[in-house]
């Protein structure tokens, strides 16, 4: 099982175990605002916004909240202006980390991230210190039981997917960033609910941790995911299922 999928399953289980709706809404509102600012408030002509709106609806965000966030992004309503920033660093065992953030105060965000990393066996790195270990790709994760294999293969590859892989319990669909939204919409056209769908920084190789180091890394990943300004966490960390289950107990 790939390292990315391992962390995907961690996030999926963690969310089911201790869902924090307010925190989820905060992150989605930021995404809506930035997507609307970058590409306009019409989701029909803004694929990034269309994807975030779908995520908002899946999280049961009220329609009024979605509309207000979009209007703030287009400047039709006053609101906080968020900046996008990528931070790189290391976790326990030399695991590489990339963090995508949306913040209204970069100084605060980088200070808090540096503190989290140093407190839990990691450190903040310089720009491009670990980026070379990752490739930017569209990534879609689908539970096997939810979709017919031939149908998924057909629509995914016909609409530009680079690869579809069997990940034991799930299907992993990989695309170029440019083809991601088209492939995702084709997959959803099958009536399929995705476990995860994002343009991600996928690691070229993985570092496997066990025992104390694995538990320390799992805790750090969870804390970073829960940070208000962190939208995505990517790493080359891989771990056994038993370590994941222990961290959720």
**Share of helix, binned:** 40-55%
- Radius of gyration, in Å, reads 18 Å
Major β-sheet annotation: 4 strands, antiparallel
CATH architectural group of the largest domain: 2-Layer Sandwich
Q: How many domains would you count in the coordinates?
A: 3
Strand content: 15-25%
Q: Could you explain the architecture of this structure?
A:
With 249 residues, this protein is α+β, with helices and mostly antiparallel strands. The protein has 3 domains: 3-74, Orthogonal Bundle (Arc Repressor Mutant, subunit A), CATH 1.10.10.200; 83-132 and 205-239, 2-Layer Sandwich (Alpha-Beta Plaits); 134-203, Alpha-Beta Plaits (2-Layer Sandwich). The chain has helices at residues 3-17, 21-39, 47-58, 63-74, 106-119, 149-158, 180-188, 211-226, 241-248; strands at 83-90, 96-103, 123-124, 134-143, 163-167, 170-175, 196-203, 207-208, 230-235, 237-238. The strands form 3 sheets. A 4-stranded antiparallel beta sheet has the order 3-1-2-9. A 4-stranded antiparallel beta sheet has the order 5-6-4-7, sandwiched between helices. Strands 8-10 form a two-stranded parallel sheet. A hairpin with a 5-residue loop joins strand 1 (83-90) and strand 2 (96-103). Helix 8 crosses helix 9 (241-248).
């Amino acid at each position: 099982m790939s390292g990315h999928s391992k962390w995907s399953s961690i996030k999926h289980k963690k969310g089911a175990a201790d869902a924090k709706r307010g925190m989820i809404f905060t992150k989605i509102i930021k995404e809506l605002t930035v997507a609307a600012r970058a590409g306009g408030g019409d989701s029909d002509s803004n694929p990034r916004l269309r994807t975030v709106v779908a995520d908002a609806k899946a999280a049961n965000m009220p329609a009024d909240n979605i509309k207000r966030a979009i209007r703030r992004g287009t400047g039709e309503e006053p609101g906080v202006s968020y900046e996008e920033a990528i931070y790189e660093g290391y976790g326990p065992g030399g695991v590489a980390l990339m963090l995508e953030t949306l913040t209204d105060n970069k100084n605060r965000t980088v200070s808090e991230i540096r503190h989290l990393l140093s407190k839990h066996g990691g450190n903040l790195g310089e720009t491009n210190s670990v980026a070379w270990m990752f490739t930017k790709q569209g990534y879609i994760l689908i539970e096997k039981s939810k979709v017919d294999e031939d149908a998924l293969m057909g629509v995914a590859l016909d609409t530009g997917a680079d690869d579809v892989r069997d990940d034991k319990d799930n299907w992993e669909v990989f695309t170029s960033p440019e083809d991601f939204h088209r492939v995702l919409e084709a997959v959803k056209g099958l009536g399929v609910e995705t476990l995860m769908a994002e343009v991600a920084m996928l690691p070229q190789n993985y570092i496997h941790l066990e025992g104390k180091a694995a538990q320390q890394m799992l805790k750090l990943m969870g804390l970073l995911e829960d940070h208000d300004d962190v939208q995505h966490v990517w790493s080359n960390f891989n771990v056994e299922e038993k370590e994941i289950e222990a961290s959720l107990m």
